[in-house]
Amino acid sequence: MIPKGTVKRLMKENTDMNISAESVEKLVEILQEYIVTTTKMAEDNARKDKRKTIKARDIENCDEERLRVKIMEIADRTEKVNILTKEFLKVLASELLRE
């Protein structure tokens, strides 16, 4: 569990606005989900390399994978995007994985 006090302190350090308890709780919830999802993706990355240790590069690669997935989600659910644009987004997403 991520300490709410720490999250609130970090939030207050970056704004002069008041911070509600609900906003702290929501951010803690989001951060915990981010950690769980990132860890699972990093584990997959390590397993692909036949390792038993998650390394920093596995975590870094998660952002690229998240971006690729998000691009594909947008392309798939946007009916106004024509076929050529969808194909371009698919190529862009696949190139992100190769870097």
From TrEMBL:
Pfam families according to UniProt: CBFD_NFYB_HMF
Segments forming domain Transcription factor CBF/NF-Y/archaeal histone: 2-62
Function: Binds and compact DNA (95 to 150 base pairs) to form nucleosome-like structures that contain positive DNA supercoils. Increases the resistance of DNA to thermal denaturation (in vitro).
Protein name (database record): Transcription factor CBF/NF-Y/histone domain-containing protein
Broad class of the protein's primary localization: cytoplasm
Family: Belongs to the archaeal histone HMF family.
InterPro entries: CBFA_NFYB_domain, Histone-fold, HmfB-like
Native species: Methanothermococcus okinawensis (strain DSM 14208 / JCM 11175 / IH1)
Subcellular location: Chromosome; Cytoplasm
Keyword DNA-binding: yes
GO CC annotation, single: chromosome
Claim: Protease is one of the keywords in the record: no
Record's keyword terms, sorted: Chromosome, Cytoplasm, DNA-binding
Example GO molecular function: protein heterodimerization activity
